[in-house]
Amino acid sequence: MQKPLISVIIPALNEEGYIGKVLDSLLRHGSKGVEVIVVDNGSKDRTRAIVRKYKNVRLALEPMKGTSRARNMGARLAKADLLFFLDADTTVSKGLFSIYIDAFRKDRSLAAATGPIQPLEKTSRKVAFSYFMVSRVFVPLLIAIRRPLIIGHNFCVRKKFFTMLGGFNKDYVTYEDWDLSTKLQRLGRLRYIKSALVYTSVRRTEKWGIIRYLFFTLGNMLRYGMFRKPKADYEPIR
Q1: Where are the alpha helices (DSSP H) in 78-124?
Q2: Pairing, β 6-12 against β 34-40
Q3: Residue-level pLDDT, tens digit, the chain, 238 residues
Q4: Scanning 111, 156, 165, 227, which has its CA 20 to 30 A from the CA of 83?
Q5: Quick one: which of 133, 142, 116, 153 has its CA closest to 214?
């Protein structure tokens, strides 16, 4: 069997409402050279049963709770030299994997890359604007000034660097992606690619409200930036 060009790793916990849509988007936009691994993190619903219907998708189990643990499990199983982390409520755009594969192939100094994130569902202008500011302004700005933040549901990285750093910090419930981004810049270049687009659910923002979500995010940024102790109280939204 030919070695895949990129391994897509999807942590999942009680995602029966979304996981099928996510896998359909992966297969619809091309699966040639793409390995897909779903790591179930102790679901009590039909998540695993839905995943098993997809013949070209590998299902792994990580009984110890935590998104970082699930992602790290998927990375250990991955066969490709490129790892792409996607959330179980996030779909991909056409040509996404070709964009990432080409970028890493052309730039051997590239350690990790990300792209824009747009709402999956219809939402308010305020929510849509907040996603625009974070994804298309804030994230590329941080990468440019070498304070990088690559958000976990659109995160592509060379496996050798990921392994070298020990993966995501398993003790972090939030900002494990920011923590890894900061470490990766010591090993190579990080890049924001405008055409590498994904669509993610806004269910948390809708449930919390934009004000609570922004206050949580800003407060957590300060906690991580000053003390490297991001918040651990981040309840699942299902």
Answers
A1: 96-106
A2: parallel
A3: 689 999 999 999 999 999 999 999 998 876 789 999 999 999 999 999 999 999 999 999 999 999 999 999 999 999 999 999 999 999 999 999 999 999 999 999 999 999 999 999 999 999 999 899 999 999 999 999 998 989 999 999 999 999 999 999 999 999 999 999 999 999 999 999 999 999 999 999 888 888 898 888 878 878 887 878 888 888 777 7
A4: 227
A5: 133
Residues whose CB is less than 8 angstroms from the CB of residue 16 and which lie 6 or more positions away in sequence, other chains included: 43, 45, 46, 47, 50
Could you tell me which residues come within 8 angstroms of residue 19 by beta carbon, excluding any fewer than 6 positions away?
A: 10, 12, 38, 47, 50, 51, 88
Q: What is the DSSP letter of 199?
A: E
Provide the residue type at 226 as one letter.
M
Q: Single out the residue of 113, 196, 186 nearest to residue 150, CA to CA.
A: 113
- State whether residue 90 is helix, strand or coil: strand
Token pair of 150 as six digits: 């690559």
pTM for this entry = 0.94
Q: Could you tell me the residue range of the domain that residue 89 belongs to?
A: 6-227
236 is a domain residue: no
* Residue of 237, 210, 229 lying closest to 132 (CA atoms): 210
- Token representation of residue 146: 């070498």
Within a domain: 144: yes
Tally the domains of the chain: 1
Q: Is residue 110 part of a domain?
A: yes
